[in-house]
């Protein structure tokens, strides 16, 4: 048996099975008893509803994960990649053109398969539990905008990678690495002004107590921002959120209108203090550096496999090509990627605790962040008792009860 074929089939199957096991454990960990910390925040009906929402999400993810894994395995076994490669080559657009058509075909096939799941999740599950505010027109427009952006940005990135690997020789991986890093950072820089407004309306936060307190806190802690905006998150969901976008002089604070409606001024400042903490403590810089290093390692390893005949034989390919090699390496890399994700999540959870501590120390009101976390958990129907294995495998944030326990120890 082809060793690469075995590794890929085994890895895809194992990742799916481990996911199923972790979600089953997570389902069994749902406790009928409301944690004491949330008495007064959840009533019996809302707590029961949050558990029903978790079960619905687990069931949906199990079905979609099994289905997508089976489709992928079937596509590999039946020589789907070879057929797609022959189809792309028939257009006669040369190596880079063929590669772009190959990726476009793969993306279209993937999206056709995934759209029914996205529709069900949005218009059935999210609708049933009172979250969905997306209408069909918005859903379709988001898809079309996504295709446009994917075509432009994906086309630029893939064209560069294919060009360097076909012409740059031994150090092509390094040129690809540099190219991807530069373009990715450039996208992050322009995203607040040119990309994100395609999906949401950004309105400058009106003058008043909230804006004054946010600006005062940011100035007090040496955090420069280019603007504070409210975005129309309620156009798609009732769930609340806030985030920072951009970097350098383009840093913006974005507050969902749903967040402003849900939380008090002090609670919103505490949430933003947490986000500012990530920047001030160097978490964002560290994650960017680690991502850059990881990207370089991936391209170096990828360069060792792009012309590997045994790897191409595992997929029944008639021709060896750079564009197909990129996909095959990504599939071969599946177990490594899964392991690295576990370590990345562990580091992220540590950063979340540190950012909570920063917010508690700088606002001097840890109770405000505790109150915000409770309200957000209730409004988002969060799972309050996730299984430790599921947390270890999937969570980039600590469970909310752990965060609250930590904040109580930070009382000023």
From TrEMBL:
List of residues binding Zn(2+): 274, 278, 352
GO BP: any one term: CAAX-box protein processing
Keyword Zinc: yes
Annotated transmembrane regions: 6-22, 65-88, 100-125, 146-165, 171-191, 288-308, 320-343
Annotated ranges, domain CAAX prenyl protease 1 N-terminal: 28-201
Details of cofactor binding: Binds 1 zinc ion per subunit.
Record's protein name: STE24 endopeptidase
Lineage, opening ranks: Bacteria, Pseudomonadati, Thermodesulfobacteriota, Desulfovibrionia, Desulfovibrionales
């Amino acid at each position: 048996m082809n060793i690469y074929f075995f590794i890929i089939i085994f890895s895809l199957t194992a990742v799916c099975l481990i996911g199923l096991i972790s979600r089953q454990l997570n389902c069994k960990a749902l406790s009928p008893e409301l944690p004491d910390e949330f008495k007064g925040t959840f009533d019996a009906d809302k707590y029961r509803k949050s558990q029903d929402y978790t079960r619905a999400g687990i069931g949906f993810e199990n079905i979609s994960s099994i289905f997508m894994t089976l489709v992928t395995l079937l596509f590999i076994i039946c020589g789907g990649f070879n057929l797609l490669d022959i189809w792309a080559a028939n257009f006669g657009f040369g190596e880079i053109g063929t590669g772009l058509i190959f990726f476009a075909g793969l993306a279209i096939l993937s999206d056709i398969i995934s759209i029914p799941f996205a529709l069900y999740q949005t218009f059935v599950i999210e609708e049933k539990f009172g979250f969905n505010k997306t209408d069909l027109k918005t859903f379709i427009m988001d898809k079309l905008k996504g295709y446009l952006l994917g075509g432009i940005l994906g086309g630029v990135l893939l064209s560069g990678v294919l060009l360097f690997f076909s012409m740059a020789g031994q150090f092509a991986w390094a040129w690809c690495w540099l190219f991807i890093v530069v373009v990715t950072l450039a996208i992050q820089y322009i995203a607040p002004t040119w990309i994100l407004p395609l999906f949401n309306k950004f309105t400058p936060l009106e003058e008043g107590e909230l804006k004054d307190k946010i600006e005062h806190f940011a100035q007090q802690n040496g955090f420069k921002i280019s603007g504070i905006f409210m975005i129309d998150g309620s156009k798609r969901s009732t769930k609340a959120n806030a985030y920072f976008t951009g970097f350098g002089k383009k840093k913006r604070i974005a507050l969902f209108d749903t967040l402003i409606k849900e939380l008090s001024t002090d609670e919103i400042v505490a949430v933003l203090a947490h986000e500012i903490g990530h920047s001030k403590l160097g978490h964002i810089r560290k994650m960017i550096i680690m991502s850059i290093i990881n990207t370089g390692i991936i391209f170096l390893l990828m360069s060792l496999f792009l012309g590997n005949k045994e790897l191409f034989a595992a997929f029944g390919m008639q021709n060896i090509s750079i564009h197909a090699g990129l996909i095959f390496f990504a599939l071969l890399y599946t177990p490594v990627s899964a392991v690295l994700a576990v370590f990345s999540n562990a580091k992220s959870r540590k950063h979340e605790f540190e950012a909570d501590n920063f917010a508690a120390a700088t606002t001097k009101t840890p109770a405000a962040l505790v109150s915000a976390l409770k309200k957000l958990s209730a409004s988002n129907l969060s799972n309050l008792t996730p299984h430790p294995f599921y947390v270890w495998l999937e969570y980039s944030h600590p469970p909310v009860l752990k965060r609250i326990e930590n904040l109580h120890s930070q009382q000023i």
